[in-house]
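Reopening this one. Same input as before:
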Amino acid sequence: MSSKSGKGRRAAQLGKTRSLAESLQEYLRGIVGGIMFSLPLIYTMEVWWAGFTEHPLRIFLYFLATFTLLLGYNRYAGLRRDASRLEVAIDSVEELGLGILVATVFLWLLGRITFDMTADEIVGTVVMEAMTVAIGVSVGTAQLGGENPEEADTGMKGDQQQTGSPSPDRDDVDFWAQVVISLCGAVLFAANVAPTEEIITIAIEISSERLIGLVLVSMTLGALILFYSNFVGAKQFTHGESLFTTISGTIVTYAVALVASASILWFFGRFDGVAPITWVAQTVVLALPATLGASAGRLLLQ
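Same output, byte for byte:
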């Protein structure tokens, strides 16, 4: 796999080969970045409609413009300075592919693309969403990574030399403090889309299968961000994690996201005059961005 963050490329320059796990972590950070940075557009009906209404030539030009931006970012920020043109092009193509994949999955989960639509409608809708996701993938891959092992070891030794004691690990992390920070992150992300008509539109139209899919995807993303992706700031929480703490941490994070989602929706009056099943559907739909905020935000806000 050739997509590399700045840290990955520095390791490559030193003659070290990245493991499969490290490569997957970089791809995961890219996917998370793509979702995070494009989240408002994924929940915007005007962008959904643009796939139907825009002329195919405009959509193609949008595609080319995004690819050009990716080339520029990967040349001057995402890659090492001496990267070849081929490396830049390969990374940009991979990021476009990930953007299209992520956009397709989430548009399907939200019921915005169906098998009843024509191929032109599906392609147009996916491309309109995927281009912003692809830029987020590029930024996320390069900027959201944690320390590599050498840097982490060096930093820990430096802390020990300066303070005479080991750096604090996850045993020193207060549970309720993390719940509060997770709640702040969940509210920060969910509040961007909670007041919009898109949430109730999706909730009314979504099928039970897609709703279950959203629950599973939300919990999976939360777990991967916190315990696998080597996300920036994650080291202090993942040292010595057991299967039990991973599962319990994922459940707590999703529970925080559900509470934040339901509270925000109630505040904006989205539960007024609708059936209880629609309350549940709205909460689950909004819990996707809220879970991103509760997990990624928990790491980024401290």
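So the earlier flakiness isn't reproducible anymore. For the record, Residues 1-16, 149-172 have pLDDT under 50 and may be disordered.
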